[in-house]
TrEMBL record:
<keyword id="KW-0675">Receptor</keyword>
<keyword id="KW-0489">Methyltransferase</keyword>
<keyword id="KW-0949">S-adenosyl-L-methionine</keyword>
<dbReference type="GO" id="GO:0032259">
    <property type="term" value="P:methylation"/>
</dbReference>
<keyword id="KW-0808">Transferase</keyword>
<dbReference type="InterPro" id="IPR029063">
    <property type="entry name" value="SAM-dependent_MTases_sf"/>
</dbReference>
<dbReference type="Pfam" id="PF05724">
    <property type="entry name" value="TPMT"/>
</dbReference>
<dbReference type="InterPro" id="IPR008854">
    <property type="entry name" value="TPMT"/>
</dbReference>
<dbReference type="GO" id="GO:0008119">
    <property type="term" value="F:thiopurine S-methyltransferase activity"/>
</dbReference>
<protein>
    <submittedName>
        <fullName>TonB-dependent receptor</fullName>
    </submittedName>
</protein>
Amino acid sequence: MRAYSAIGLLYLQGDYVDMPDEDIAKCAAVFDRAALVALPRPMRERYAEKMSHALASGAKMMLITLEYDQRLFAAPPFAISKTWDINPRWSAAALYHYTGEAVQSTLDDYHLLDLSVNRRLANHWRIALSADNVFEEDYYTAVGFPCPGVGIRLGLNYALH
């Protein structure tokens, strides 16, 4: 593990899995630029479990993730969402977003839930129905610019592979 310090801050860089819980508990903030999306699902679950148990209450975390149809590209970086294959033709997905209060910002935290269902029509064709912000959360991603309420999308997709 490497440690760097500047302006009264201590930065730790290393293998998170091998880091002792007591060192993680001392962290007031965590920045995950690419660790979670690089891990396959079983390792992501262990990572999230360790993070939830080791971080102190009130610690802040910035997590960068990706969202896309994982069936189109089955290698890292991995999409972070939950998809259920109902049968060979039908699937459903849920994506939960939580954005905490930004540091030095007047924006409030918010929770969003997006849901979708997909049906395979033919070899390369899929139809999808999606509902974004299903609980109609009032939220802002920039001061003075409110985001839309519930959004419904219907799409027809063709995969080139």
